[in-house]
Recover the amino acids of this structure.
């Protein structure tokens, strides 16, 4: 269960979008607004640096007062820091903390967002990370979660179902599948007559049943945890990225899993999550695999 929502603040339009979303979704929990002054790109003159810091502290205090007045039932606090924003936010992340960062709406080439704060933090954080694009004024409802039968998928389902139940939203569980490359998939001769022939209808049918079982098991986990929750399962024949992006275009929230890799691979999200973040169309939470075990 999320006990604290931590918002990265820098007085930009994406940060305002992140704060507005967090204020709406954390009702009943604690809200922390964190301003991290990045010394690596700051001024070298100590007097000027101190003056900038004082100005930022005052601005942060004003934002906290504004939010607290709007949300009297929520405990709002703040923290002003100097250092690396991603490192400081990562240290504050955890299974019980939701870290929220804003991002610009995607226009034109998306490669420039590959090393954005949201993408880098989601890949290395110790808990869930919400990435919120600037508001486009669209009406949004429902929670969408992508599943693939992995531990990260289970963590994503658990998080999405809890948030849907807490906010009175419906939940849509999506599992996308497509035929594997023939040379990567061992099959019996009666299902696949030869290496140059397409898969038989029997093979495709059996493969679809395997994927439907993955979807059904994920739906069952959500309904077992929250029996009154309205849950819809969708099995999509095709790549997962466009399926999830299309389904979440008008969703209030999209949840995807991060498999929690180690070593150098931990600096990068999985291909599906990475593509979702690069082409983000709605507020998106990336959940780590370890959270399933932590519950």
């Amino acid at each position: 269960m999320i006990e604290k929502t931590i918002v990265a603040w820098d007085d930009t339009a994406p940060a305002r979008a992140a704060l507005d979303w967090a204020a709406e979704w954390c009702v009943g929990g604690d809200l922390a607004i964190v301003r991290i002054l990045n010394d690596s790109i700051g001024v070298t003159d100590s007097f000027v640096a101190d003056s900038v810091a004082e100005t930022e502290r005052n601005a942060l205090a004003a934002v906290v007062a504004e939010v607290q007045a709007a949300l009297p039932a929520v405990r709002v606090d703040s923290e002003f820091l100097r250092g690396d924003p991603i490192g400081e936010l990562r240290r504050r992340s955890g299974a019980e903390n939701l870290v929220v960062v804003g991002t610009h709406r995607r226009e034109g080439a998306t490669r420039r967002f590959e090393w954005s704060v949201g993408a880098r933090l989601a890949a290395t954080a110790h808990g869930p990370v919400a990435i919120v694009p600037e508001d486009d004024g669209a009406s949004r409802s429902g929670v969408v979660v992508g599943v693939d039968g992995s531990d990260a998928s289970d963590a994503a389902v658990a998080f999405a179902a809890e948030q849907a139940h807490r906010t009175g939203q419906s939940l849509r569980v999506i599992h996308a599948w497509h035929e594997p490359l023939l040379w990567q998939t061992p099959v019996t001769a009666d299902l696949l007559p030869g290496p140059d022939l397409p898969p038989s209808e029997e093979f495709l049918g059996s493969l679809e049943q395997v994927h439907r079982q993955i979807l059904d098991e994920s739906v069952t986990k959500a309904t077992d945890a929250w029996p009154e929750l309205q849950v819809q399962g969708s099995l999509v024949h095709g790549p997962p990225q466009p399926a999830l992006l299309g389904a979440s275009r008008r969703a209030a929230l999209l949840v995807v899993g991060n498999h929690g890799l180690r070593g150098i691979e931990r600096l990068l999200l999985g291909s599906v999550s990475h593509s979702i973040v690069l082409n983000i169309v709605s507020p998106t939470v990336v959940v780590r695999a370890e959270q399933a075990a932590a519950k």
User: Anything to note?
Assistant: The CA atoms of residues 69 and 214 lie 46 Å apart. Residues 261-269 have pLDDT under 50 and may be disordered.
